[in-house]
Amino acid sequence: MDNEVSAGSGSTTVVGRLALGITLLAFGLGTTGVIDGVAASDAVSVAHYVGGVALFLVGLLAFRGGDSASGTGFVALGALWFTWAVAGHSSANAAGVFLLLFALVALTLTLAGGDSLGQVMHGLLFLAMLVLAVAAFADSSFLTKVGGWVAAVSGAVAWYAATAALAHWPTALPGRAAGRGVTAAG
Known about the structure:
There is one protein chain. This protein is an all-alpha fold. Helices cover 72% and strands 0% of the residues. The chain has helices at residues 11-32, 44-64, 68-87, 92-111, 116-138, 141-167. Helix 1 (11-32) runs antiparallel to helix 2 and helix 1 runs antiparallel to helix 6 (141-167). The longest helix is centred in the C-terminal third of the chain and has 27 residues, at 141-167. It is globular, with a radius of gyration of 17 Å. The model is unreliable at 1-8 (pLDDT under 50).
C-alpha cells in the first residue's frame, strides 16, 4: 500500500468526505434497524445539516478553490441529502424515483474517476441507492436492510478516506506491483 495522500485537493475534500461519511453512517445504520429504536428517519437532522447544508457549502468552497470535481460532487450530494431530509413522507414509488436519481448522481461521480478510495466510496453509494430504490419499488424490507448496510459501508469508506488524509494512513488500494509483461519469480 502507498502512504501518499491522494484524497483530492486538501481540506475541502477531507471535510466533505467526513460530512458524507457521517451522513451515510447515520442513514445506513438507521436503515438497517440494527440499533434498537433507531430508524432512517432519525438521520433526518444529520442529513439536513451535515449531509445537506455543510456538504453543499464545502462543495462551494471546493469550487472557489479551483477543484471542480469535488465541488460538483459535494454540491450535488449536498442538494440531494437536503432534499431527502426536507421532503417528508411520500409514496413508495416517488421515494424509489428519488433514490434512483440519487444513484445516477453517485454513478456519475464513480465514473468521473479520482482516487481509488473516492471511487469505491461513490461506487458503494451508487449500489446502496440503487438497492434502496429497488426496495422502495418492491416494498422489500430485506432489500431495504441490504441497502442500509451498503450505505453504512460507503460511509465507513468515506470516513476512512478523510481520516487517512489527516492521519497519513495508506490511501491507495493494493494493485499490481509490476508493470505490464512482468511476472513474479518463484
